[in-house]
Amino acid sequence: MNLALQDITYIKGVGTKRADTLRKELGVSTALDLLHHYPYKYIDRSRFYKISDIDSEEAYVQIKGEIIEFHTIGAGKTARLSAMFSDGQGVVELVWFRNIQYLKLETHVPYLLFGKPSVFDHRYNFPHPELTPLAKLNPLSVQGLMPVYNTTDKMKSVRLDSKALYSIISSLHDPLKQGVPDTLGMDIVQRYHLLSLTDALLKIHFPKTTEDIQRARERLKFEELFYIQLSLLRQMKRREQNCGITMPKVGHFFNTFYRQFLPFTLTGAQKRVVKEIQADLKSGRQMNRLLQGDVGSGKTLVAMLCALLAADNGCQTCIMAPTEILANQHMQTVSSMLAGTGVNVALLTGSTTKKQREILHARLSSGDIHILIGTHALIEDNVQFANLGLCIIDEQHRFGVAQRAKLWAKNITPPHILVMTATPIPRTLAMTVYGDLSVSIIDELPPGRKPIHTVHYSLQRRQTVYQFIDQQISAGRQIYVVYPLIKENEKLDLKDLQTGFNELCEAFPRYRISMVHGQMKAADKDYQMQRFVSGETQILVATTVIEVGVNVPNASVMIIMNAERFGLSQLHQLRGRVGRGAEQSYCILLTRNDLTKDTRKRMDIMVATNDGFRIAEADLQLRGPGDLDGTQQSGLPFDLKIASLATDGIILETARKAATEVLQDDPLLESEWNKIYRQRLDMLRMTVANWSEIS
Ligand code: ADP
Ligand code: MG
Questions:
Q1: Distance CA 270, CA 498 (A)
Q2: In 3-state terms, what secondary structure has residue 119?
Q3: Which of 685, 661, 666, 527 has its CA nearest to residue 237?
Q4: Which CATH number describes the domain made up of 453-609?
Q5: Domain range annotation of the chain
Q6: Alpha carbon of 264 to ligand 1 centroid (Å)
Q7: How far, in Å, is the centroid of ligand 1 from the Cα of 629?
């Protein structure tokens, strides 16, 4: 029997209705697909507990014993059934709240109880346990490790719970035993000491020991990560064969700026990174590079130097920022640094008027403008360049892959792409989400920076914080106060912000305060920002619009209200707004008192370290990769079913190595012996396409 061709409808216990649900809910349509729906955990049914052994609510347990007494409490909808269950030594209560009319309990009959204990009134009880008379125990039912499968509400509504799935999958045991074609070549299976696919599937659904589960998971995770790597690396190789615009010259613009206008010495890391990019630019191949550097590491300057290289080679550069505030700020930094060098810089955002646009378009297509800075407005089709050679995307997580692709199309030979991100990316994510990009890292901050001092206070200590604000402003510093923004209720957020603003105005009548939020008109936002940048206002009250990139070196205190509502990388980004000048800077996290364990951990990590890399790792551990900024948008080529980017780093490294080996002599998988990989990749892509049609 070919399991890959067997329609699930005809598997014992399925039928049309359930098959339909399986297709819709799990994307499962063949027997083999179903075998790739892996258990997410196992329950050890070889062990029998005593009631006195129960010591947590964590695990399922099974106990042999009998019911000594049962009765119904209450009546009607709120009625519940309570039974006292004894194992001969101890007694524990069993309770049922639903469907009690169908329960047929008998006293003094030996039962096997199976369930998860729960604490009520300082005692353990079992809500809705499974009770099977020992006499009726199916000798074939699982006695060892029982798999537990994820199911959805829709599946449950057609009685497809974990147990039902297990029984359906069990009916595939014998056909599976006859073997399924492997999806990895034998050479890889052997070299990396993996199980065959058949063995892995047998062991993941029908394990005898925990080692079986371990080995099966290892193989299935490996395979998943291997195909992601293969797909990414092949894409990268394909692009390497693309011609790129060759930029061999270091000329007038670069040299003039570097010799006469550079405001400070580059850090070693900045120099190294510029060299790496320069090597790409003159290679004749299209660059697709990720520039990673913690907040304040000086990425803007690197971007500008690269733009000058492009200008020296007769090419234009566009620098794309995620917000108008940032685009304005880049415009200011770049144009003031380049004043007097003869490089023409222009700005294009949503606020650029039609008339200004017309002039701009003309200057762009004539090649008069060397560097165009802007927001999304840059990628509109009517923005045409004379010779766009380099696209720099700042704070990439706000831009999707599709938008990146639009930029490629802006020149006959695709322009070089440099993606800059301040969110340090854990290695596993860098290898997957950005696995098709080359990576450069600025791992050094400009000299003289003092580490930011971070504290975590309860919101009730606001007065202490106000005193501190006063002290800092008196010393000539400026202050950020940030309020959280929850998209679902912008009105309420604004109210919070407004209340906060009023409170600060009252507390500090002598100081001037700016306010900035997402609902404001760009011009107003810009005006308020400018007031703060120029030092006219001492306090900036804002929502997270200031999260990325804003640079006001004189601001030395970042106060984050309701810090519990922010994720770690966001907190780190916000903190990165201070500590940019020579003064000691501070970050004050204010939260409610009743924090969850995870939230407390987030605060502790922020207080403990300024190292963006450590924070990113912690974030990945706490939240899982799915939630991290950028992953949804950048996306993986396929979903991960079993492997985890948080915990499977080692398997990922091995899988990447194996994929590299496969592509070594056959970068596009064209040879006969790599057919298995080529076909599998095509198939995986097909599945993904099907999924997106369903959802
Ligand atoms: P980010 O990497 O977060 O975008 P920026 O480019 O905004 O960082 O730089 C942060 C600050 O550091 C800016 O004020 C910038 O002028 C300054 N800076 C950048 N490079 C250097 C350097 N080599 N030496 C001293 N200061 C620098
Ligand atoms: Mg920046």
A1: 41
A2: strand
A3: 666
A4: 3.40.50.300
A5: 1-45+146-180, 46-142, 183-241+645-695, 252-442, 453-609
A6: 10
A7: 23
Using CB atoms within 10 A of its CB, is residue 244 exposed (0-12), middle (13-18) or buried (19+)? buried
Residue pair 564/593 in contact (Cβ under 8 Å)? The answer is no
> Rg of the chain over CA atoms, in angstroms?
31
If one looks up domain 46-142 in CATH, what number appears? Answer: 2.40.50.140
The CB of 631 under 6 Å from ligand 1? The reply is no
Distance from the CA of 527 to the center of ligand 1, in angstroms? 23
pTM: predicted TM-score of the whole model, two decimal places: 0.69
Name, in order, each residue with C-beta under 8 angstroms of 178's C-beta and a sequence gap of 6 or more. Answer: 1
Rounded Cα distance, 146 and 139, in Å: 14
Ligand 1 near 39 CB (within 6 A): no
Return the number of other C-beta atoms located less than 10 Å from residue 207's C-beta: 21
Name 91's bridge partners.
Answer: 86
d(CA 419, CA 396): 6
Q: What is the mean pLDDT of each run of 10 residues along the chain (695 residues)?
A: 87 92 92 94 86 83 93 86 93 89 87 90 89 73 81 90 92 94 94 97 94 96 94 83 88 94 94 96 90 87 96 96 86 93 94 93 95 89 90 70 68 88 74 78 87 94 93 95 72 78 93 89 86 93 74 92 89 88 92 91 94 84 56 54 84 94 92 91 65 27
- Cβ distance 177 to 647 under 8 Å? no
Yes or no: say if 131 and 111 are a contact pair by the CB < 8 Å rule: yes
Pocket test for ligand 1, best of 257, 258, 261, 264 (most atoms within 8 A of CB): 264
Q: Ligand 1 pocket, 575 CB below 6 A? A: no
pLDDT of residue 412: 80
Q: From atom 17 of ligand 1, which residue's Cα is the shortest distance away?
A: 298
Q: How far apart are CA 437 and CA 59, in angstroms?
A: 43
User: Could you tell me the maximum CA-CA distance found in the chain, to the nearest angstrom?
Assistant: 97
**Non-local CB neighbours of 650 within 8 Å, separated by 6+ positions:** none
Q: What is the pLDDT of residue 399?
A: 55
Alpha carbon of 74 to ligand 2 centroid (Å): 65
Interval between CA 544 and ligand 2 midpoint (Å): 15
Q: Say how many Å lie between the CA of residue 271 and the centre of ligand 1.
A: 13
Per-residue model confidence as pLDDT tens digits over 292-317 = 888 788 999 999 999 999 999 999 99
For residues 92 and 85, what is the distance between their CA atoms, to the nearest angstrom?
5
The residue whose C-alpha atom lies closest to atom 26 belonging to ligand 1 is: 446
* Beta-carbon-side half-sphere exposure of residue 124 (alpha carbons within 13 Å): 21
Q: 480: closest CA among 537, 527, 422?
A: 537
Residue 498 has φ and ψ, to the nearest 5°, of -65, -45
At residue 149, the pLDDT reads: 93
Q: Do domains 252-442 and 453-609 have the same CATH topology?
A: yes
Residue pair 148/59 in contact (Cβ under 8 Å)? The answer is no
Ion ligand 2: residues, CB within 5 A, are 549
* DSSP characters over 179-210: ----SS-HHHHHHTTPPPHHHHHHHHHS-SSH
Q: Say if ligand 1 is within 6 A of residue 298 CB.
A: yes
Report, at the CATH architecture level, how domain 252-442 is classified: 3-Layer(aba) Sandwich (3.40)
284-294: per-residue pLDDT in tens? 888 989 898 88
Three-state DSSP state, 341: coil
Per-residue confidence (pLDDT) for residue 521, from 0 to 100? 85
Tell how many helices (H) and how many strands (E) occur in the chain.
24, 22
CA–CA separation, 223 and 183 (whole Å): 8
For all residues of the chain together, what is the average pLDDT? 87
Does the beta carbon of 299 sit less than 6 angstroms from any atom of ligand 1?
yes
